[in-house]
Write a structure and sequence with these properties.
7 helices
Length: 153
């Protein structure tokens, strides 16, 4: 029998983020839950936790969405509640900046630092492409960033 591992605040932040993705695009529920499952499983592996096939799987995540929904919308039914989930929803409601900071850290833990840095770099380059700089192209700036990263480690 697998050891049950309690959810942590980073997993809860990712779950809340997924909850809102589903609320905004319910037709993509299955996709969002599968992505979250993969991220949570990878986070555990990155932390050196041995997992099995049921760890943070689709069914388990689906069940955990009910207490999150209930915490945001008390009229929605749930069979269970979680102090951690309620605390994280309170942070979301009362200190959104703190919630976003926890979520950003959770994404680093789930994806690994290198993947997140690549995502941020691509987002920066997309933004940069919208600007009207004439002296340096986004490609030149990107290459300079890569050189700096290689030099500074």
């Amino acid at each position: 029998m697998a050891v049950r591992i309690k959810w942590d605040k980073y997993e809860a932040a990712l779950l809340i983020d997924t909850f809102w993705l589903i609320e905004n695009e319910p037709t993509r529920r299955k996709e969002y839950i599968q992505n979250l499952s993969a991220d949570l499983r990878q986070k555990a592996i990155n932390a050196g936790i041995e997992i099995d096939e049921v760890f943070r799987n689709f069914n388990g995540i689906s069940m955990q969405l009910a207490p999150i929904a209930h915490a945001f919308f008390p009229e929605r039914p749930t069979l269970t509640t979680s102090v951690l989930f309620e605390e994280m929803v309170a942070i979301y409601k009362n200190d959104y900046q703190l919630f976003q900071s926890i979520l950003a850290e959770a994404k680093v833990l789930a994806k690994g630092g290198e993947a997140l840095m690549k995502d941020k770099k691509n987002a920066f380059l997309d933004w940069l492409a919208t600007k009207q700089y004439k002296k340096y192209s986004p490609k030149v700036i990107s290459d300079a960033m890569d050189d700096i990263h290689a030099e500074c480690g």
